[in-house]
Design a protein that fits this description.
By secondary structure, this protein is mostly helical. It contains 3 helices and 2 strands.
């Protein structure tokens, strides 16, 4: 996250946002990262830069797993984009 902030300041027109990408159904949910994500948002505000979250979320076919809430959590964290989000599909 610190590196992302540094790169955004150095290349403001190149860095569009911050994302966490990985297989959600095998990893941890976004809620496990709330403290560092909220600290990051605070630092972005403090620096006065535009660096939104652009999370990939809902990238799982799992039903009932920990990652099920990631779409909602991404929205609550203010994501400007949701990558893929295929758990939105009707089953």
């Amino acid at each position: 996250m610190d590196e992302c902030l540094q790169l955004k300041q150095k290349y403001p027109d190149v860095i569009a946002g911050f994302d966490l990408v990985g297989a959600e159904d095998t990893g941890k949910p976004l809620t496990d990262y709330l403290a560092p994500l909220l600290a990051f948002k605070g630092r972005v505000k403090e620096l006065g830069i535009n660096l939104p979250f652009i999370f990939h979320a809902g990238e799982t076919l799992d039903d009932g797993g920990q990652a099920d809430g990631n779409l909602y959590d991404a929205i609550l964290l203010g994501t400007k984009r949701i990558g893929h989000g295929y758990v939105c599909d009707e089953r």
